[in-house]
């Protein structure tokens, strides 16, 4: 049975697309047949982050009735399958969101996990992306505006009968001015399932069109996303971390001689 | 005559609302009567940022409950007036965006100040774009990342079609990184001039968490100087950045090490 999970945030710019892209790659590396769909038809960024812009057939073409969804599926980094939204304004004008449902049916048949990158806001296209899935991951930063918008999204998702897996706190920077994990859990009334540290490398990786999880798998951010992927499918993950004990032992040995 | 300045970004999270707020405070410090309007009917944040939590009457009530606009004009720090949008979307369900008369709202509001800063929603679906006052000057807000410039470009194209005048773009939350787009590259993509470059500073978010503007909390920071400079340029005024007197410091050091006579 295919799991359809929407990644949504409410507020824009909290890292929703970055998390979707990297989580998709993470799930693919665990051997799950994963498709990532960019449902942000107006402000599509997934293809830019994955370095897959300029594909000839995109979701725009599918939603305008000009192409079949099968032709809009591309192989991305780490074996993840990607359906880009298309970035042209012209393409956007011709689409009909009600064509999304039949496209989704095809995607579901071809994947173990379908990750949907939802648009920010709660306009028609955002609601379509939220309603399309059975499960949702909420993404927020620890700031009040972002949490308040996440709460709105949660309320809508509940009304649509979508099961909320939990909230991912993105760009955490250990700053007491902002909200803590416990405070966020209290406000949103959903469990925190991952805390992703703030990392300027994320923007730099995007500039290369390469997801961070592949560009720098040892970074704390990549580890946190790999862990999230593992938790979602009940796998074990051993974080890539420096072997501090080994280094200390060697240092002591070098200084004091073998004992 | 009233000036209407609209802030648009396409992509969310590029600091559009914070820039609107900080620039509003900066303009007020230059003596302007400022009104800030949150035109994002769904994901409104200006009320949260200005510390106006749970105001009695919001733009939502004007739109569905026939409240008059003068009931939802609130004064915050520096004498700035704010027209918040509600955050309860129970109300939102009753709003049909196709029936909003933005012209009427803008007409009524124009009695409340000389400069109106309008925080536009992210995305390109909003019908508010078509209801902007005729003399609106739009400012695009972007960061130096490709996704945010791409989305700003969409807004630029859309605004050209709608005959909305664009004064230029503000490169926001900027930090020096040659992997990201440079100001010249962004200028050549967007084909509008850069009118401000605001360095990234975590203090902006920290000040806002306290309901304050960076230009009040730390007026000598590079970010505050850049915001004040942008405000001055918009008004055609002069601004002298608050910077340490380096000549004085160099002189003192030289004197200290005995290079200069007493």
Tell me about this structure.
The complex is a heterodimer of chains A (259) and B (262). With 259 residues, chain A is α/β, with parallel strands linked by helices. Chain A has helices at 16-29, 46-49, 59-63, 89-93, 100-109, 124-131, 144-159, 181-188, 201-207, 212-215, 220-233, 244-256; strands spanning 3-8, 34-38, 74-75, 81-83, 113-117, 135-140, 163-172, 192-197. The mean pLDDT of chain A is 92. Chain B is an alpha/beta fold. Chain B is 37% helix and 16% strand. Chain B has eleven helices and eight strands. In chain B, a hairpin with a 5-residue loop joins strand 3 (74-75) and strand 4 (81-83). The model of chain B has no long low-confidence stretch (mean pLDDT 89). The chains are: A alpha/beta (259), B alpha/beta (262). At the A-B interface, helix 7 and helix 9 of A face helix 6 and helix 8 of B.
Helical run tally of chain A:
12
The geometry of chain A reads as globular
Looking at the structure, the CATH topology of chain A is Rossmann fold
Name the overall outline of chain B.
Answer: globular
Query: Mind telling me the CATH class of chain A?
Result: Alpha Beta
Task: Give the class of chain B from helix and strand content and strand pairing.
Answer: alpha/beta
The biggest sheet of chain A, with number of strands, parallel, antiparallel or mixed sense and barrel status, is:
8 strands, mixed
- State which percent range the strand residues of chain A make up: 15-25%
CATH class bucket of chain B: Alpha Beta
What's the average pLDDT of chain B? 89
CATH fold-level topology of chain B: Rossmann fold
Q: Whole-number radius of gyration of chain B?
A: 20 Å
Class inferred from helices and paired strands of chain A = alpha/beta
Number of strands of chain A: 8
Total discrete domains of chain B: 1
Query: What oligomerization state is this entry in?
Result: heterodimer
Query: In this structure, how is the largest beta sheet of chain B organized?
Result: 8 strands, mixed
The domain count of chain A comes to 1
Helix content of chain A: 40-55%
What is the CATH superfamily label of chain A?
Answer: P-loop containing nucleotide triphosphate hydrolases
The counted number of beta strands of chain B is: 8
